[in-house]
Design goal:
The complex is a heterotrimer of chains A (255), B (390) and C (185). Chain A has 255 residues and is α/β, with parallel strands linked by helices. Chain A is built from ten helices and nine strands. Chain B has helices at residues 8-18, 33-45, 56-68, 79-95, 121-127, 143-160, 170-174, 214-234, 264-279, 297-304, 320-328, 347-360, 376-379; strands spanning 4-7, 23-26, 49-52, 73-77, 99-105, 136-138, 163-169, 176-179, 206-207, 238-241, 258-261, 284-289, 291-293, 309-314, 334-338. With 390 residues, chain B is α/β, with parallel strands linked by helices. The chains are: A alpha/beta (255), B alpha/beta (390), C alpha/beta (185). Chains A and B meet through strand 1, strand 2, helix 3 and helix 5 of A and helix 3, helix 4 and strand 9 of B.
């Protein structure tokens, strides 16, 4: 018999408890998977998995409830903040968050997001901004950059007739009810680490009852942008960040 | 308990509170605003949730959220606001969560006016949103009935996990009558097992109002249809006056020959007309549906076997009329008297219509149509000469 | 069978709502069926308010009537509006202090009550609704004055409690003024 060397395994990386084992349906190079993981890690670290409730939007992330091991509801297009309000007001001890895209949040759901922030609704919003409608095939969103070609602005967004990008962090941070408003990007590992910290801070804001919190995440959509994933990440940095500057737009400590 | 004199809107609010409503979300609109205002005062007093939403669109989605949480929840609005809620109602229906909606109807279309109307029958009874489903619709005709049906609405909503609408009009919302309120119920101790309350010590719960695959969505639809059929079997309610049985008139014999069909406020106005017509010796009775969905079609079909004719009275252009015609199935003539735009039909006008119906159907009638049964539909009703028509 | 339908009509602020509601409370407390409905919607114009009260000993159908059995008109626009609508043989009780052109319709009882003047004599112009209600009770016999006084005690808003006795007095003064036997015009 050859003696077996004692072997110990050290786990250095694993799926967060708040994340399910279901493979996602997202396109190759899509940033939703990264954003989901950051949210799940934050939930694990804060120990709130058993009281976290997700409100999923209409859009690519309509399936988000599949990818988290937490309770979840799918809302109508744009209405996630209203649905979350109903969930949170009746269960103030739960941690309720919406996960919304830019068409959902900044276009059809503009009234709901503004009033949730205005009321200081004690919710957390994860806002993924990739400058297009993803699920319906890359149409122009309120967040589409000037000149950007989409399937509904084939010659590029002409601001004279199609308007200007809606800057949601800038807008919402003006409201007294908003407690924590930050914009981060997912285009590099360093930015992803910063995004994670902001998400943790947003959940903490809710846990401490300080009011409305939102983290906007600049993300790529290689499929609808018609770019290679790596090029798409570079494009976030070179084209999106100048229009949507990163940073904390509102950090209110008291409730 | 001593009776109280209460406005319909306020009585409904108090009834909901006593039935244990835990959250109310709404938006101001005449003629239901007293309901919202009453809730804004009483709900916080009781430590329950009141929130004035930014729109009816938001209000119904807040209702959806609270319903997903397994909480007893309601909203109220009036016709244009109810139109805005159709999207949320469809999601609630697809998700099989309970919710109570109060619609105090006003004149339409468009901004219409704030006067009483019954023109939401189609939008609430037939569908309430896109897709294939039917909410339960309860139509009170008195303030006391509004109270009783509001309590029932919460029970039915939870029993069947469905939308229940209390459908009334501005007249009933604004008028005062003596009411006996129910005792205050205890709130439910724990939310139901399916509720979205956080996955503590159990597998996660999800509420998903879509099925991407056609076979799965059809299965969801079959479930909804089974629920609707179950409700239709068990929950039909109506009230009859002077038709037969205990309501039979001692003077005029045991069965009405003419049947007036009317719901809600029109139903109570029709009662005055029916009484007046009976004074004239006309053997007429009133059938007042209380559940508009499920509709009392079997009972009306049964009445049609022997009745000489029907008169439908509504505060609209003839919406329930279609259901009455389907139920009567051509066995007897069906006339209609409707007022629109916020006009309330008056008893003497309805009494005149009853006289006309009496005149046009006074010859002995054989309702049986000769010929093969397959031709019945094509032949249509045994029409009488409409001599009484202006 | 007992069945009354009354319309109360006047300017906003003349106490149409409270006067008619008090009658509805009294009917309820006397164990009768009653409905009270305010004008709202298309009728609510020109600053006049009106309410319909139906009192019956059986289930009430229509809460609105085209031809009320009695109308209490607190101002001239109300007389103008309701004079043609009163049921034949019915009652038009009007505030003679403000209605300078008396109604002339034949076949109804038109009864003038100088309600504003009497209210002023009693020290508060707002008592005119009670004067008119007292007269209505006296003429129609729908409910005893004592029943209405009890309801007044129960339902006079807390901020008006100091006016309780004055209200009762106004009711009785109205009843006295209406004691003359009625003759159809």
């Amino acid at each position: 018999m050859i003696p077996v060397e004692p072997f110990t395994e050290q786990v250095v990386f694993q799926r967060p408890r708040a994340m399910s084992a279901t493979p996602t349906t997202y396109c190759p190079g899509c940033m939703h998977g990264v954003a989901h993981r950051l949210v799940a890690e934050a939930i694990d670290e804060l120990g709130i998995r058993e009281r976290a409730i997700l409100v999923a939007p209409v859009g690519c992330s309509v399936f988000a409830y599949n990818y988290f091991e937490i309770d979840g509801v799918v809302a109508a297009h744009g209405r996630a903040p209203a649905v979350a309000t109903g969930l949170k007001r009746t269960q103030p001890d739960k941690i309720v968050f919406t996960y919304q895209g830019d068409g959902d949040l900044a276009s059809i759901g503009i009234a709901e997001i503004l009033h949730a922030a205005g009321r200081g609704e004690n919710l957390t919003v994860i806002f993924v901004n990739n400058a297009v409608y993803g699920m319906t095939g890359g149409q122009m969103a309120p967040t589409t950059l000037p000149g950007m070609k989409t399937t509904s602005s084939p010659l590029g967004r002409d601001t004279r007739t199609m308007g200007h990008p809606m800057k949601m962090c800038e807008l919402l941070s003006q409201l007294d009810g908003a407690a924590f408003i930050a914009r981060r990007s997912l285009h590099s590992p360093a930015e992803i680490r910063r995004a994670k910290k902001a998400i943790v801070e947003a959940f903490k804001t809710q846990m401490e009852g300080r009011g409305f919190s939102m983290v906007e995440l600049l993300a790529s959509c290689p499929t609808n942008w018609d770019m290679k994933p790596v090029d798409a990440l570079k494009w976030i940095e070179t084209h999106m960040v100048p229009i949507y500057p990163l940073g904390d737009y509102k950090t209110r400590v008291e409730s | 308990m001593a009776k109280q004199l209460m406005k319909g809107n306020e009585a409904i609010a108090e009834a909901a509170i006593r039935a244990g409503v835990e959250a109310y979300f709404g938006y101001p609109i005449t003629p239901q605003t007293e309901l919202l205002e009453y809730m804004s005062k009483r709900m916080p007093e009781l430590g329950r949730v009141f929130l004035q939403a930014e729109s009816e669109v938001a209000a119904i989605n807040m209702v959806y959220g609270a319903a997903c949480a397994g909480r007893r929840v309601m909203t109220s609005s009036s016709s244009p606001g109810i139109s805005l809620m159709q999207e949320g109602l469809s999601y609630i229906a697809a998700s099989n969560v309970p919710a109570v909606i109060v619609d105090v109807m006003r004149g339409g279309p468009g901004l219409g006016n704030i006067a009483p109307s019954q023109s939401d029958y189609f939008q609430m009874v037939k569908m309430a949103g896109h897709g294939d489903y039917k909410p339960i619709v309860l139509a009170p005709a008195t303030v006391q009935e509004a109270v009783d049906l509001t309590v029932l609405a919460f029970d039915l909503a939870e029993q069947y996990r469905t939308i229940v609408t209390v459908l009334l009009d501005g007249m009933l919302g604004q008028m005062m009558e003596p009411v006996e309120l129910p005792a205050m119920r205890a709130l439910p101790a724990t939310p139901p097992a399916w509720a979205i309350t956080g996955a503590a010590g159990r597998a996660k719960n999800v509420v998903v109002p879509f099925r991407l695959q056609a076979d799965e969505l059809e299965a969801l639809n079959f479930d909804l249809q089974r629920k609707i059929a179950d409700i239709a079997r068990r929950e039909v309610r109506f009230k009859e006056y002077f038709i037969d049985g205990a309501n039979a008139d001692k003077v005029h014999g045991d069965r009405a020959e003419l049947i007036v069909v009317a719901f809600g406020a029109a139903g109570r106005v029709a009662l005055s007309a029916v009484k007046a017509a009976r004074q004239q010796g006309i053997r007429v009775g009133l059938h007042r549906p209380i559940t508009l969905s499920p509709f009392p079609d079997e009972r009306l079909s049964q009445l049609a076997d022997e009745a000489r004719g029907f008169l439908v009275v509504e505060m609209n252009a003839g919406q329930m009329l279609e259901d009455v015609k389907l139920s009567v199935g051509g066995q007897a003539p069906v006339r209609f008297h409707g007022r629109m735009g916020g006009q309330v039909p008056m008893p003497d006008d309805i009494a005149q219509e009853i006289e006309k119906l009496d005149g046009m159907t006074s010859r002995p009638i054989d309702h049986k149509i000769e010929g093969p049964v397959v031709l019945r539909a094509a032949v249509g009703p045994a029409r009488k000469p409409e001599t009484g028509r202006n | 069978m007992m069945h009354y339908d009354f319309v109360f009509s006047g300017f906003g602020g003349q106490g149409v709502l409270f006067g008619s509601q008090l009658l509805a409370y009294a009917a309820m407390e006397a164990g009768l069926h009653v409905t009270w409905i305010p004008s709202y919607g298309p009728e609510m114009r020109g600053g006049t308010a009106n309410c319909t009260v139906v009192i019956s000993d059986e289930e009430i159908g229509a809460p609105l009537v085209r031809h009320p059995s009695a109308v209490v008109a607190l101002n001239y626009p109300s007389v103008e509006k309701y004079e043609p609508q009163v049921a034949p043989g019915g009652l038009l009780l009007y505030n003679a202090s403000l209605v300078l052109r008396p109604p002339t319709r034949v076949g109804i009882h038109c009864v003038p009550i100088p309600a504003s003047d009497v209210a002023a004599e009693l020290g508060n112009a707002k008592l005119l609704n009670m004067v008119m209600l007292g007269a209505l009770l006296q003429i129609t016999g729908v409910l005893p004055i004592g029943t209405v006084e009890q309801s007044l005690e129960a339902h006079l808003p807390a901020r008006r409690r100091d006016m309780l006795e004055a209200n009762k007095l106004a009711l009785r003064r109205g009843a006295e003024l209406a004691q003359e036997p009625l003759v159809a015009a």
